Structures
1.
Amino acid sequence: MKWVLLIHILGATIWTGGHLVLALTVLPRALRARDPNVIQEFEAGYARLGMPALLVQIVTGLWLAYQYLPSPAAWFGFGSPVAVHIFVKLALLALTLALAMHARLRVIPKLDADRLGVLAYHIVAVTILSVLFVVVGTGFRFGGW
Ligand code: HEM
């Protein structure tokens, strides 16, 4: 449990930390220069770490959730604060994956200076979701915020 939690927290530093750097430093630079390449260069390096980190978060997160509530049906039952936290985490995950798929399939293939704004909204939204993952995560052991 200790090791899984450690890996989960390390993954969180990569996923949330990387997105905060992207949203707060790389994105403003790209918008100022009206240059999508600034983001693409960052993504080329970050994707190698960020995507495996998200995968690790999903696997370790599901494992941790299973330790709290060994019946996955209870994750959707709102029967306790822990169940609500697990449900919210899964909802955040669904939103994150939907935004990522939309960006990859619809926005990035046609990306140019005019469409940079659409990508900016995606980046800001995924970054807010990534911070919410951490906020909800720290609520588990204190029964919520
Ligand atoms: C990028 C995605 C995620 C991030 C950034 C993230 C981040 C965090 C953080 C910072 C904690 C606090 C750990 C602590 O209090 O010591 C946590 C706990 C937790 N997370 Fe996540 N998480 C993510 C995805 C998930 C997913 C998909 C699940 C699956 C339901 C999940 C389930 C849990 C559980 C059950 C805990 C409680 C662990 C404990 O306190 O013992 N997480 N998460």
Note: The two ends are 23 Å apart (CA to CA).
2.
Amino acid sequence: MHILAFSGSNRKDSFNQRLVAVAARGAQEAGVDTTIINLGDFSLPIYCQDLQNESGLPPEAQRLKNLFKEADGFLIASPEYNSAFSPLLKNAIDWVSRSEGKDDPAGAAFAGKSAVLMAASPGALGGLRGLVFLRMLLGNIGITVLPNQRAIPKAADAFLEDGNLRDEKVQASILNLGGTLAQHLQRLES
Ligand SMILES: Cc1cc2nc3c(=O)[nH]c(=O)nc-3n(C[C@H](O)[C@H](O)[C@H](O)COP(=O)(O)O)c2cc1C
């Protein structure tokens, strides 16, 4: 059993990448092997069907897709851009969703898997509005998105230097988000 954890940000000091790292620790502590990746480490062009038709999936898209295929669940921290998720996250999902022939149906990297969502924003709503769209998108591609989620407002003041959350209760709730996904996957397996 395996969880893939990532954010929708490629910003150097991303709040969301820090947030998902805390949740990933919660999942790990609950006993499920968890890998954190940074989508910014995958150099993906904007999805173009002509490009895929001409030369297949770019190697970096294939590398990302393999990580998604190997995962049973996803921890996703989504920055809110103009009340929706980021283009980086959407572009990654679009590339990973693509079929490469009969033995690899479209969406195979997502279908039947589970996810837990979270967000952080310097704003007052913590990126909550973007999670509405993300939850809908993921549901439409066959992912069970668990009801538990958190949005962290005023993110510029919410984190300590070491990446943990300043407020102990908030820290515990994010660790618990990771633990919730881990326990859900463990229940499915048993
Ligand atoms: C194009 C753009 C649109 C944004 N729109 C919103 C928004 O609708 N709501 C919000 O709370 N923050 C918005 N922000 C601010 C982001 O929440 C902020 O940049 C945050 O740090 C992004 O997450 P990150 O730290 O993980 O990169 C926007 C930022 C950008 C660059």
Note: Helices lie at 15-29, 49-55, 59-70, 87-96, 128-140, 168-189.
